[in-house]
Amino acid sequence: MTIDIVYYISEIERLMSKVFESAKEKGTIGGVYPEDQVNILLAGALEAAKQLEKQIYDEVKLKEGRSYGVPSNEMQLLALALMWSAYAGWVFKAKSEDLGRVEESRKGAAAVSKYVETLIVNAIRGGQKIGKDNGRPEGKKEPIDIG
Fold this sequence. Notes:
This protein is mainly α. It has helices at residues 5-25, 34-64, 73-96, 103-131.
């Protein structure tokens, strides 16, 4: 069994369309409103994360014979992180290769796309370093490199 990340990328894209549509209805084209990001995007992503959280639990339990409990804040945050990471990987890659976009926009997306994976992996490694020996983040610094 595996987790199909396409569903979650599509869900974020669907929610983003709602956010843009709401902004358009308010008279803003190509922009977003923070309250829509919270009320539409984040609220919807949290709902999708509940489903992904259960899938993660099932996958880990299948492989390891046990998993961290669900529902839990930690597993839901992991699910959200996976969704946002997959979306970032997809959106910058897709925009960098979209010949219908303005060249400058494609080049900007391509520049970011080169570092998405490294940023995410380095952030995870930084978190793991902080958590070593039951460490806490308070009072620490853990700079990450973009690659």
